[in-house]
Amino acid sequence: MKVFWKNANLRLKFGLIMMGLFIVLGFIVPLFPHVNPIIYNTFAKNLKPTAVNWLGTTALGQDIFWLLVESLRNSIMIGLIVAVIGTTVGVFVGLLSGFLGGFADRALMVLTDTFVVIPSLPILILMTSLMKGQASIIVLALTLGLFAWAWPARQVRAMALSLKERDFIQTAWFSGEGAIQTVFTEILPFVWTWALSNFMNAVLVAIASESSLAVLGLSPANLPTLGNMIQWSRERNAILLRQWNWIGPPVVLTIILFISLFLLITGYNEYQTMKRGR
Q1: Does residue 157 contact residue 97 with C-beta atoms inside 8 Å?
Q2: CA–CA distance, 12 with 29 (Å, rounded to integer)
């Protein structure tokens, strides 16, 4: 870890620090005793920031700070679940398609291309509308993950097509390794670095997608997320009423979260480039 931190560039360090703070805020801070922020009329309405309510309260009598913490945690969880689904399925499909070739390759690529060309936003709008605003985090993440694996699968397939022509793959074949064993023991280690970078990018895209659906009023109405928190404040005219302590924190936190993920992704890619150049 000391060597990694010493060689890491400034963007990677800043991204790691910021994401660490977000993890603490979203997953450690909620462990402290607090009032459930989802319940209405817990406090007086539209309070300004005080020693008790650090960011004030909403028009529904909810504590904004704890609502923000809950929303951050759910947004990160959605991003992580979608990233796991998209990266895992994408890497698995791409490796099998590129390495097996033949009919399996054509069948998998037809399926992959279908999900690539289908416009995801109209489908997501339709699916979330059918859920009638009652979806859980898992259901919403699975819905978003449905479209998160196709592009990674195509990219991994291209990598697999190149790698399988290398001499060490032929050596693995002649040594008696099967197709699945060769994929996971010989090719997968070369894809791992790319997969980690794609995972971080998938987290960013998933949070952005959920926020877009929420601002359109299509995210589950009973699920606090950063996007939903912005939408709830808009529905109750927080901007017109100049309740900046309500609408401001989720907007600012979302922007900082996106910037942190972007710095983490670009910093990690630069770090890997530096390592390969040594």
Answers
A1: yes
A2: 24
Helix residue ranges per DSSP H, 216-278: 226-235, 244-276
Cβ contacts of 56 within 8 Å, gap of 6 or more: 46, 47, 48, 49, 50, 64, 243, 245, 246
On the CB side of 232, how many CA atoms lie within 13 Å of its CA?
Answer: 26
- CA dist., res. 110 & res. 102, Å (int): 13
Contact yes or no for 77/145 (Cβ under 8 A):
no
pTM assigned to the model: 0.89
Measured CA angle at 188 (ends 185, 192), to 5 deg? 135
For 133-179, write each residue's pLDDT tens digit: 667 788 888 888 888 999 999 999 988 888 877 777 777 777 777 76
Task: Walk me through the domains of the chain, giving residue ranges and CATH numbers.
Answer: 19-30+53-276 (1.10.3720.10)
Residue 165 is classified by DSSP as T
Using DSSP, state whether 57 is helix, strand or coil. strand
Residue 117 identity? V
For 65-103, the pLDDT digits (tens) are: 999 999 999 999 999 999 999 999 999 899 888 887 888
Long-range CB contacts (within 8 A, 24+) of 136-143: 136/220, 136/223, 137/74, 137/77, 137/78, 137/81, 137/223, 138/81, 140/78, 140/210, 140/219, 140/220, 140/223, 141/77, 141/78, 141/81, 141/82, 141/85, 141/206, 142/81, 142/85
C-alpha R_g of the chain: 22
Q: Which amino acid is at 103?
A: F
The Cα–Cα gap between 262 and 278 comes to 25
The sign of the CA dihedral 177, 183, 188, 190 is positive
